[in-house]
Amino acid sequence: MVSLPGHRSLGDADDRTLAGRASDGDIRAFEILMRRYEPLLSAYAARLLGSYSETDDVVQEAFIVAWQQLPTMEDFGAVRRWLLQIVTRKSIDRLRARKDHADIDDHDLPSHTGDPEEAASASSLDDALSRALSALPEDQRRCWLLREVGGYGYDEIAEQLELPPSTVRGLLARSRKTLIREMEAWR
Amino acid sequence: MTDPTLPPGAGGDSALDAAHLDGFTLEELGEYLDSGRQPRDERIESSASAQHALAALSRLRAVAPKVMEAEAAAAPLRAPSWFKAILDQIGVQAHAGRDIPLAHDDARTRLAITEGAVRGLVRAAGDELDGILVEKSRLEGDVETPGSPVTVRVDVSLYTGADADNLLPALRRDIGRTLATHTELNVEEISIRVRDRDKDPEDDA
């Protein structure tokens, strides 16, 4: 028997088990899930928001919503995507609120020029793409993130970002074109 | 056609330049990939240029999650107090469920234990045993009326090599004991369902 009963097995447990336990009311299981996904969710939120300053609040709110909604969750194995989508909705709420207060100009993520030479000097492909992502126009970046990280379909992206589906299609294509160019430049 | 969103000099020789797409648009190819290349489009599948572009799009798709993971890994770790603040807030609104009354000598005093706390007791009983994990439990019956018969339904997983023949009766016994100690529930049945056998701890996380 382990010294801390259950602790070892729970810390190593898969997402489905942890989400199931959390939905049963196990706060410790939820804490393990939070620690597992907080870095990814924060990085994703910062990218969607273009800012670190609101990321804390968004991720915090997302976790609280997640806790409340866990008992009604259907597929515990899909917790990663489920958390990303809660963060997406919370981030978009912020973006809409920001649009209503257009005087707040809050963009503190480092920006890059997207210069291929800069991409070539990146230390890794991940790094090169990170820089290229920073250089994308905001609407292209958001479409790409919702599609490739959030796992949204075209129509869902259109709905979330309040854009016509044809615009989403175009934005996705342009973002991919730029990012692939950067990938090729890095090689 | 030049793309006005690209910085000057980024023209290069890309698999995705319109000149190399064999008449297909990037939108079209991206959408084809997004739909899992279904239904199969013979025109696209038989075009070498389109295949080349699809390969580039697939590579991008494959690295996308890694980019986000790398950014996440590079970010500074959050202070334990950040998590604690959330947990404190969550603790207040824990999934308490129904109140289960407890008798008290003083008739004017009402004591109760929440359904959520009882589920915690059931999980804890499982946590004391190696090789088995209680995932969920629920109480069926009128738990708010003292003496009403109650069925405890428990979902568990068993780890690889776990001895189900001994573990399941042991869990049933331990749940019965802990509920008898901490509650006044009239437990009529403890029903255990194994959701996952041969769960491999190495596969987790």
Architecture blueprint of SSEs:
The complex is a heterodimer of chains A (187) and B (205).
Chain A: H1 7-11, H2 15-23, H3 27-49, H4 55-69, H5 79-100, H6 116-121, H7 125-135, H8 138-148, H9 154-161, H10 165-186
Chain B: H1 26-34, H2 42-45, H3 48-74, H4 80-92, E1 99-102, E2 111-114, H5 115-127, E3 132-140, E4 149-159, H6 164-182, E5 186-199
Parallel strand pairs in B: 4-5
Antiparallel strand pairs in B: 1-2, 3-4
Explain how this protein is built.
The complex is a heterodimer of chains A (187) and B (205). In chain A, 71% of the residues lie in helices and 0% in strands. Chain A has 187 residues and is mainly α. In chain A, helix 8 (138-148) crosses helix 10. The longest helix of chain A has 23 residues, at 27-49. Chain A is globular and about 45 Å long. By secondary structure, chain B is of the alpha+beta class. Helices cover 41% and strands 20% of the residues of chain B. Chain B has six helices and five strands, in the order H-H-H-H-E-E-H-E-E-H-E. Chain B has helices spanning 26-34, 42-45, 48-74, 80-92, 115-127, 164-182; strands at residues 99-102, 111-114, 132-140, 149-159, 186-199. In chain B, the strands form two sheets. In chain B, strands 3-4-5 form a three-stranded mixed β-sheet, covered by helices on one side. Chain B has a two-stranded antiparallel ribbon with strand order 1-2. The two termini of chain B are 47 Å apart. The model of chain B is unreliable at 1-11 (pLDDT under 50). The interface between A and B is large, with 72 and 67 residues.
